[in-house]
Amino acid sequence: MRLLVVEDETRLARALQRGLTADGFTVDVALDGVTGLERARDGQYDAVLLDVMLPGLSGYEVIKQLRAAHVWTPVMMVSAKDGPYDQADGLDYGADDYLVKPFDYVVLVARLRALLRRQSDPRPPVLAHGDVRLDPATREVTIAGNDVSLSRREYELLEFLLRHPGRVITKTELLDRVWDARGVGYEPNVVEVYVGYLRRKLGPGLIETVRGAGYRLAP
């Protein structure tokens, strides 16, 4: 089995390389997100261990670009970011497992072997609501079968709403989850602006305004 470890902490990366090699794996190491993405795109690995906080490209961006390029190599994210939203983000973006640092090496190997046993080129499900379809793998959006061109921010806002159907989502949460840097530097009105963009492109009936609360997908 050939593994790629994408980890910028050199001592940890080398320790993982030594340990996994001793356990029978062939292991390559990338110390930044850009190099990790380039190597993982080749599709020559059986699995990837991917840190989140990386120079060049974050682990989240690496996994998003891999899945967008139809690379279905199993990915286990390994990170000190242990919040529930952090783990949910990793899994939503296409990771197959998420292990929080510090971890027990024996647990990592056991979960890695379990991941390799159950993995068989999965494709993320298409998100749908009414006539709207969003494919996380290709980042394509259609309505009634017709392609819709969205900006990066419009796409990410729509994807977040589609992943939480029926729930009222506040402007603050949308800023935290969709906008960069946890919404720092942005006014809440920017959410209204982008909701307006989506309504113009996808139809006015898709997103409801819940007065005093936020937004939700229309039933």
Describe the structure.
Helix 2 (33-41) packs parallel to helix 3 and helix 6 (152-162) crosses helix 8 (189-202). The strands form three sheets. Strands 2-1-3-4-5 form a five-stranded parallel β-sheet, with helices on both faces. Strands 6-7-8-9 form a four-stranded antiparallel β-sheet, with helices on one face. Helix content is 40%, strand content 21%. The protein folds into two domains: 2-118, Response regulator (Rossmann fold, 3-Layer(aba) Sandwich), CATH 3.40.50.2300; 127-217, Orthogonal Bundle (Arc Repressor Mutant, subunit A), CATH 1.10.10.10. The protein is α/β, with parallel strands linked by helices. It is elongated. The chain has eight helices and eleven strands. The model has no long low-confidence stretch (mean pLDDT 87).
Number of helices: 8
Strand content: 15-25%
Overall 3D form: elongated
Query: Which radius of gyration do the C-alpha atoms yield?
Result: 19 Å
**CATH level-two architecture of the largest domain:** 3-Layer(aba) Sandwich
| CATH overall fold name of the largest domain | Rossmann fold
> What string, H for helix and E for strand, traces the elements in order?
EHEHEHEHEHEEEEHHHEE
Biggest beta sheet attributes: 5 strands, parallel
* Number of beta strands: 11
What value does the average pLDDT take?
A: 87
Précis, in short:
Helices cover 40% and strands 21% of the residues. The chain is an alpha/beta fold and 219 residues long.
